[in-house]
Design a protein that fits this description.
By secondary structure, the chain is α/β, with parallel strands linked by helices. It has a domain of 238 residues: NAD(P)-binding Rossmann-like Domain (Rossmann fold), CATH 3.40.50.720. 47% of the residues lie in helices and 14% in strands. The chain contains 13 helices and 14 strands. The chain has a 6-stranded parallel β-sheet, sandwiched between helices. Helix 2 links the parallel strand 1 and strand 2. About 3% of the residues have low confidence.
């Protein structure tokens, strides 16, 4: 038998070897974020820089980056439809991971259907083709609950179900899911994706989506103590607080590839509520708050989407979990938006 001191020394050496391997792997990663100025892009970029280092995460967008992003690491203007410039960045920076977040969202896509289809799909194909040609190890592309449609079961919507979207955004996301799975099966491109529900953030404001009322309402509650909602009071939709969305995105990218049972896109559920339920939660903090309802074209979009999602597959495969429920999210949103508006 080895003396206790020798065993301890061997364990210490083994631990330091594992630690060195981990940090070497982290240092080798070079990440490109496309669409860093969007709702999720700015916060994801900052979180990735905390994990991998500021110089290891290259942020890009077609418009200037938020000051936090531009001031904490490299940033370049990039039109993702410009495949030549995208290729130059990928090769020059020796990129190992791409987070492709650029897209025209649901509400805005309905106003410009052909242009939105072109931007959403051509940008994805540029990324997939270059990932195949340059052998980029890992790609993240976000899908959405918009892939579902009016024939989809609305409650406890399963991972595998009927998907007949009737919006430009949903059609493009469903097509995108099929393409990323195809590139994985045909070419071995390591594609990963989440079907985001509505995303709620106090750092970035609404950006043209059908679920944006759940962001706008906090600003209006604090500024004016009232809000006119563009959805009806009982329009239940799944939502997700941004910190949970960021962690889920990074978790699926860091998951062992052997544990992923699908390469289209994982359901993520978050929290489901209606405008009326959210307003009642806000009233617990701002009793004088009033909400009125004036549904617009986005009501039809919301009515075609699920009210509640089943995300058991993601929980089983890579340990999806959430930190925020509705009361906790509401408290943080009111507190942080209040600070912004001071």
């Amino acid at each position: 038998m080895l003396p206790c001191q020798s065993v301890t020394l061997l364990l210490q050496q083994y631990f330091f070897l594992l630690l060195r391997e981990f940090f070497n792997n982290q240092l080798m990663e070079k990440i490109l974020v496309i669409g860093c100025s969007g709702q999720i892009g700015s916060e994801l970029t900052l979180e990735l820089r905390k994990i991998y280092g500021e110089s290891k995460v290259i942020a890009t967008d077609i418009r200037p980056a938020p000051s936090e992003v531009a001031g904490t690491g490299p940033f370049e203007i990039l039109d993702v439809l410009d495949a030549s410039k995208l290729q130059l960045i990928l090769e020059h920076e020796k990129i190992t991971q791409i987070y492709h977040l650029a897209a025209i969202l649901s509400g805005n896509a309905e106003k410009r259907p052909l242009a939105s289809w072109d931007i959403n799909m051509r940008s994805l194909m540029n990324v997939l083709e270059l990932a195949r040609e340059l052998r980029i190890p890992k790609i993240f592309w976000p899908s959405s609950i918009a892939v579902f449609g009016p024939t989809t079961p609305r409650f406890d919507t399963p991972q595998y179900t009927i998907m007949e979207p009737n919006t430009v955004y949903g059609i493009s996301k469903l097509a995108g899911e099929r393409w990323i799975e195809y590139y994985f099966n045909k070419y071995g491109v390591d594609t990963r994706s989440l079907r985001y529900p509505g995303l709620i953030s106090y750092k970035t404001e609404a950006g043209g989506g059908t679920t944006d009322y759940a962001v706008e309402i906090f600003y209006e509650a604090i500024k004016h103590k009232k809000y006119e909602c563009f959805l009806g009071p009982d329009s239940a939709l799944p939502m997700m607080f941004m910190p949970d969305a960021i962690h889920a995105t990074i978790d699926v990218m860091e998951a062992d590839a052997s544990k992923l049972s699908l390469r289209s896109s994982y359901n993520v559920a978050g929290i489901s509520f209606t405008p009326k339920i959210l307003a009642e939660e806000i009233k617990k903090h701002i009793p004088e708050f009033e909400i009125t309802y004036k549904p617009d074209f986005r009501q039809a979009i919301a009515d075609s989407w699920p009210a509640r999602i089943n995300d058991d597959v993601a929980k089983k495969d890579w340990g999806l979990h959430y930190e925020f429920d509705l009361p906790k999210m509401t408290y943080v949103m009111l507190h942080e938006v209040g600070k912004k508006l001071q």
